[in-house]
Amino acid sequence: MMLRFGLLFLQVFPLMAAAQTVTIVLRETATVESRQVLLSDVASVSGADPALARLVGSVQVALLGGAERPLRIGRAAIAHVLDKRLPSLRTALQVSGAADVHIAMAGKLLDMRPVYAIAQRFLEPVVLTRDPAAEIILIPSSDYDAVSVPEGEAAFAARVVSNTLSPRMHVLVDISIDNKYVRTVPVWFQVRATRTAWQLTQAVKAGTILDPRLARAVRVSVSEGSSAQALFADAAIAPAMKLTRDKAAESLLSMADLAPQSPVGKGRELRVTANRAGIDVEDRAVALMDGTTGSSITVINPRTRQSYQATVVDRDTAEAR
């Protein structure tokens, strides 16, 4: 029974709405503050039910191109929009008045150049903090159709929606006229961020000592979430580095691909120097472990089989203390 009542109500409601006449009298001219033109902007809307009249008046009937693009819209076109947006009120709307309405936007067309300039100045340090080593280029995505504001002195304040580095980013610019907030516009930029990285010129096996002839400097994009900070992009390839994994030709190097080269490998015979009671002595020893320059390793005298600690000087020499 309740379901039947609900269906009956839905069927009767349009008839009730249609039975209430809404009078619409179009004006010959209208000045609006926004590009979105509502029926209430271009006509007087009245009826026995104020709520219903407000509903009809809130229908958007046109969209202006900007302050320099006035629009003329005919009564038939407005009636067609209302018929499409409010089909249940088709028989209740009485449209009269001007045959055509001339619509213009109030105020002036804003010069967008300072808006883009402040947005770019605001965005540049934000994207640079994402990767200080990157070269960032911001390109305005497109010019705005038109932004209309009242007469007066304009001021701008920018704020970033997100500081995540991505190929397209935008800044919100708040516009005030004579210290009174008017509107906010999003200003979009294409973000082209690149940095120097090293690219291998040929396939290289793990353990290979990195040689400048094995790599070339290239510019790589970091605008799409690549781990820019991990790229090995020093001005010169550091000496005493070796690859920790196999790498294919044309692949990029990262810090994770490199490890300090061990000047001394396990089993290498070394010249070991020492100073005993002011006398320099020298002996031979064999490294029992890998070691880098300056590190302490265990060595063994092959004659006496005595092991002791020595500091690596270079790939052939160690020093005992």
Q: How confident is the prediction overall: mean pLDDT? A: 81
Major beta-sheet overview: 5 strands, antiparallel
**SSE order, one letter for each helix or strand:** HEEEHEHEEHEEEHEEEEEEEEEEEEE
Helicity range: 10-25%
Strand-pairing-aware structural class: alpha+beta
The DSSP helix count reads 5
Distance between the termini: 102 Å
Shape: rod-shaped
Uncertain ranges: 1-18
Q: What is the strand tally?
A: 22
What proportion of the residues form beta strands (DSSP E)?
A: 35-45%
Q: Rg from C-alpha positions? A: 39 Å
List descriptors:
321 residues, alpha+beta, five-stranded mixed beta barrel, 40% strand, disordered N terminus
Quick overview of this protein structure:
This protein has 321 residues and is α+β, with helices and mostly antiparallel strands.
